[in-house]
Amino acid sequence: MLKKRGGFPEKRCVIVAGAGIGDYDHIRAYLHPTDFMVYCDSGLAHMERLRAPAHLIVGDFDSHERPDLPVETIVLPEEKDDTDTVYAVNEAIARGYDDFLLIGTTGGRLDHTLGNISILLRLDTLQKRAAIVDDISEIEIVSSRPVTVPGSFAYFSLLGIDGQAKGISVENAKYPLSDATIDSEYPYGISNEVLPGKEALIRVGEGRLLLVKIRA
Asked: What DSSP letter does each residue of 65-79 carry, written as one string?
């Protein structure tokens, strides 16, 4: 679980977008005092309840009033190729960040949710660590590095998101896999469970999968 990793990453960027957050206590538990906080447009509505001041604000301010704060602010045009969130990610990459946590990026408009999930693919391609957290789930890409799932999660699902993934193994789970293949046309990796007292271990030999861990 992300919030239980030992120590704090020295250079983690947290990007907050405008999708709904219901359980602020839960989301705040993921934040570290060393995080570089970037708020995207209407993500500013979450700042007070997250209790995490902005270090950078990015947006075209079509969905939130432009703030009058003593914080670096990048004002974007409304008509552009990049969403505010994508621009914020690119800006953080340019500033040298290798570890990303995205908040307020799922729920609401499906197109924005899917677009934000695709950001995880790009960050994985760049060999950056990245995850999305929301009220009920943690979402990340599984590719070249093995990933564990603690038993504190009720379920976890593996979804084909980037063509075909091969050589998949899942250990210490109710539905284990060995040298399996998952593609984006047949979602048979839904709702697996970690065995009691264990941590599930996921490996992918070739390709990438979307891992969604569901909060108990």
From this structure: PPP--SSEEEE--SS
Query: Cα(58)–Cα(111) distance, rounded to whole angstroms?
Result: 20
> Could you tell me the pTM of the whole model?
0.92
- Residue 3 pLDDT exceeds 60: no
pLDDT at 4: 41
Secondary structure of residue 109 in the 3-state scheme: coil
3-state secondary structure of 27: helix
- Backbone angle region of 104, left / alpha / beta, with phi > 0 → left and psi within -120 to 50 → alpha: left
Beta pairing, strands 36-40 & 56-59: parallel
**What are the pLDDT digits (tens) for 77-109?**
877 788 999 999 999 999 999 999 999 999 988
181 vs 169: CA distance, rounded Å? 9
Per-residue exposure over 25-51, b if at least 16 CB sit within 10 Å of its own CB, e if not: eebeebbeeebbbbbbbbbbbbbeebe
Q: 28: which 2 tokens? A: 């705040």
User: For residue 102, what are its two tokens?
Assistant: 């995205």
